[in-house]
Each structure stands twice: as structure tokens, then as C-alpha cells.
Design brief:
alpha+beta, 3-stranded antiparallel beta sheet, 6-stranded antiparallel beta sheet, single chain, 11 strands, 333 residues, 10 helices
Length: 333
């Protein structure tokens, strides 16, 4: 089939194409013919990295939004399956959203992921044949993923960080792009309406450069000690200083810089790890186990903030103490 697009989709209208002998038809009809001949569908996949705080009432609103969107189409058949993935590797599958609403909320195992799957059979306005559409919405809980990572020490930290960064995934299999776009916008509007943790741009900047903190503390400590020794050199060195005294001063100064900068590297690495481990709250709050996971994530963030301040203070104290010790025990004698 030869086809040529002659009108672009401006103003939200369906574009038209010419086929065969030049007859103009709607792109919606062409997409339907393509699906009928090949049996293939197209796919939209979208990832979200928002810090959502989703509850069961929010999921109910999502289900309601999708049903309201479908009301504008001629839907022959539709169903919804809900799968709940818990941290203890226990999965629960519900054949309808109504059944999902009455699941056990007293469970102590946090919910890692909720997957909503909608199967729709829609007859588009300009065709007489039903077309299949499939919507999959995966909503992740960062709090539960972090708790699972703490229990499973075999999982690499970098893998956990990548997984926890993505908080939701949307996948739509479709025939008509216009219908798929409408469904996509419905889900987008739901995510935008969720309560979210504020994005800390300063924290993001520090996390993007956290691998430099070990070098920063190393060279900064060496620089501060060199400045200190340079300022004090007039007190230690005189015209009558012997070569032995010069060697002693140089040995102690270089030894101090070497040892202190080496220790400062460790403090810098701890500062970087503490910054990386501070995670904005993002969770599913459906069970008692979720509440516990949320509380643990909040405590972990507070603990990492204290660790950050402590290691900065230790780095400063290390430089001051080493300068004092070097002067009074090494060079000062």
C-alpha cells in the first residue's frame, strides 16, 4: 500500500493520507487497516521519576479517571487486573479493581509495586471494527525498595539506586495513536495531581558530584596544612637553623600532609555516601508494612544527614588537631 501524508495533525484533528488512486482517508482508518492485515500494535512506554506519595484513595481516583476517559469511546469490552508485589516476594493478583479494594491492609510486608493492567476493546469513531488496547501502569514504592535492599545484601547498591530512581512506568499498546495519546494524558494528569515530596535541587547537585568529595577533602586538607606550615615557617626557620633541623621540619611537615590527606580521603568518601543515601520520600501507603517502611526511610535520611555533618566536622577537627600536634610534638620541640 502506497501512502503519503498530506496533512499534519494540527489543532488535534486526525491527519489524512492519500492511498491508491489518490483518495484521501483518515489516518485512523489506515491504522485500522494496518492492524487488520498485520495483527501488530504500536507501543508507548514512559518512565516517571517523581517523588509520589500514593494511597489507596489515589489508586481509586486513577481507576475512575480511566473509566471516565473510556466513556467517550465505544468500548465493547474492558477489564482490569491488579497485581500487588510485596517485599517478601509474595505476589497477589486480583481479577478486578473492586476485588483489589478489599485486600488485606493489615499486612506487615510493605508493597514494593502495584501493577494495574487494563484490557480494552474499542471501536474508533471512523471504523466499524473493534481494536485492542492494553494499558499497564506500574507504581513503585522507593521506601519498600530501600527496605528490601537492606535485607538483601547481595543486591549491588548501584542497581538499587537505579531501580529506586524510577518510581513508575506506563506502557500502552494501541492501534490508534489519538486514543493512546488521550489515555496517556489521563495517566499523566493523575501523576501530576499526586502529593509529592519537593525536589531539592541542592541535594541533586551534591549527589551528582558526590564522587568528588573524597578528592575534595584530600586536597583541601593538604592545602590547609601547607598554608599553615608556610605561615608558621618564619617562627621555625632562622638563619642559624642547621641542616638537621631543616630535615626534621621538612620530614614532619610532609609526613603530616601525607597522613592527614590519606585519612581525609576516608572522611570524604563517607560524606559522599551519606549524601547519596539521602532519598526523597516516595512511597505507596496501602498497608501497615508500608507505614513501617516509610518510617524507616525517614529515619535513614535523618541518620545520613547526621553522618554528613559528623564527617565534615571530623575532617575539620582532623586538620586542626594535626596542625596542633605537629607543632607541639614534632616541629615545636
Amino acid at each position: 500500500m502506497n501512502q503519503e501524508i498530506v496533512e499534519r495533525n494540527e489543532g488535534g484533528e486526525n491527519p489524512k493520507v492519500t492511498i491508491g488512486d489518490g483518495q484521501m482517508v483518515s489516518m485512523q482508518i489506515v491504522q485500522g487497516i494496518y492492524n487488520e492485515i498485520t495483527g501488530k500494535t504500536e507501543k508507548i512506554i514512559k518512565s516517571y521519576q517523581i517523588h509520589h506519595k500514593a494511597t489507596q484513595q489515589d489508586l481509586i481516583q486513577l481507576n475512575l479517571k480511566i473509566h471516565q476517559t473510556c466513556e467517550q469511546y465505544h468500548v465493547i469490552e474492558k477489564n482490569c487486573n491488579v497485581t500487588v508485589y510485596q517485599v517478601d516476594d509474595c505476589n497477589q493478583r486480583y481479577s478486578s479493581f473492586e476485588r483489589f479494594q478489599i485486600f488485606d491492609q493489615t499486612s506487615l510486608s510493605p508493597i514494593e509495586n502495584v501493577r494495574l493492567q487494563y484490557n480494552l476493546l474499542i471501536v474508533p469513531p471512523k471504523t466499524n471494527r473493534p481494536q485492542p488496547y492494553k494499558i499497564e501502569i506500574d507504581i513503585h514504592s522507593r521506601a519498600a525498595i530501600k527496605q528490601k535492599a537492606k535485607k538483601n545484601h547481595r543486591m549491588p547498591k548501584i542497581f538499587i539506586d537505579i531501580v529506586a530512581l524510577r518510581t513508575a512506568v506506563l506502557e500502552i499498546q494501541y492501534v490508534d495513536y489519538t486514543i493512546a495519546k488521550t489515555l496517556n494524558e489521563t495517566v499523566d494528569s493523575w501523576f501530576e495531581g499526586l502529593e509529592q515530596s519537593k525536589d531539592n535541587h541542592y541535594l541533586n547537585f551534591l549527589q551528582n558530584h558526590s564522587h568528588y568529595f573524597s578528592l575534595l577533602t584530600q586536597y583541601l586538607s593538604a592545602l590547609l596544612l601547607c598554608i599553615y606550615f608556610f605561615i608558621k615557617s618564619e617562627m621555625w626557620l632562622t638563619g642559624q637553623s642547621s641542616p638537621v633541623e631543616l630535615f626534621k621540619i621538612a620530614l614532619v611537615a610532609f609526613g603530616t600532609v601525607f597522613i592527614v590527606s590519606g585519612i581525609a580521603v576516608r572522611f570524604g568518601a563517607e560524606i559522599g555516601r551519606a549524601i547519596d543515601n539521602i532519598q526523597p520520600l516516595s512511597f505507596l501507603k496501602l498497608t501497615r508494612g508500608d507505614e513501617k517502611a516509610i518510617s524507616e526511610l525517614e529515619k535513614d535520611n535523618s541518620r545520613n544527614k547526621r553522618k554528613l555533618v559528623l564527617n565534615i566536622a571530623l575532617t575539620l577537627a582532623l586538620n586542626l588537631f594535626s596542625a596542633w600536634l605537629t607543632y607541639n610534638i614534632g616541629i615545636g620541640i
